Each structure stands twice: as C-alpha cells, then as structure tokens.
Amino acid sequence: MSMYSQKGNVLVVVLVLVIVVAAGGYASYKMFWSNQADDSKEAEHTMENDEIMSDDMMPNESGDGGMMGTDDDDSMMGGGVMDQTKEFMVSGSPFKFSVSEIRVKKGDTVRIVFTNEQGMHDWVVDAFSARTKVLQAGQTETIEFIADKIGTFEYYCSVGNHRQVGMKGNLIVE
C-alpha cells in the first residue's frame, strides 16, 4: 500500500503545481493586457487633446504647477534681446513622450525637466547637443540649452529601438 500512497502523493503534488503555475500565468496575462488597454486609452486621450506644448502653455516656475504665458527670466542679453527661459515638463513611458511638440523662439534658453515613468529612457536633441542620462523608472533630470537656430528638430529616446517605434517628438524653433 505504501507504493500506491507515494504515487498518489506525487500525483497530488504535481497536480497542485500545475494549477499554481497555470493560475500565475493567467494572472500575468490579464495584468499585461490590462496595462496595454490602459496605455491605448491614454494614447487615445493624448491624441484627442493634441498634447502640444508651446510657450503659451508652459508651466511656471513658482512650483504651483500652473500654466502661464510669461517668461521665467526677463534679463537682457546683448543687443537688447530678452533672454527667455522656457521650461517644459516631459515624461517618458513605454515608447512615448508626454509632449509630442515643443515650440520656442530663437535665442530662448530651453529647460527640459525629464521624468522617466517606466522602463529606461532618455531625452535627446542632436541639433543642440542636449541629452539626459538614461534614467531608471522614477528618476528625473533637468537639462538646459540655447535654441540658437531656427528650424524643426527631432527629439527622441536613444535607448534600443525606442526612436524607431515612435518615441520621438519635434522641437520647433521660430
């Protein structure tokens, strides 16, 4: 009887393991597709609201999170031109930036406060040699550069194939 009892115990243990593995796989599957649905809803919301930031919509520096159309720094540069610092809050998540277009004027100092929400990402614009480090989820880095030439310049994430799958946007200098 002990031989049948041992085989029965082994069978029960194997059956329990199969059920646990199947339940874990199912839970992972549901969680993955739930996150994908949330991302697609967010993408639809982004497209509906046309997430484009211009200097009329930039966040102020007072820390209250409000938006304003005035400049952070009104100090004079040579020749009587105002040095205007434009600050933009940009976040990165899987294969997208929160802001698809940034508009500034030639001569503006551009401050990018980049926060990585998920995965590993950076923010790069080659035309101005501006880039953050590759950041882990939850990290933030601030960079500044002067938009000293007019044109449309692509910014992107340089990690893996993120740029190729759409993690990019346009910096427009007028």
TrEMBL record:
It comes from the Bacteria. The lineage of its organism: Bacteria, Candidatus Yanofskyibacteriota. PROSITE patterns: MULTICOPPER_OXIDASE1. This is EfeO-type cupredoxin-like domain-containing protein. Residues 88-173 form the EfeO-type cupredoxin-like domain. The keyword Metal-binding applies. Transmembrane segments: none annotated. GO terms for molecular function: metal ion binding. It comes from Candidatus Yanofskybacteria bacterium RIFCSPHIGHO2_01_FULL_41_53.
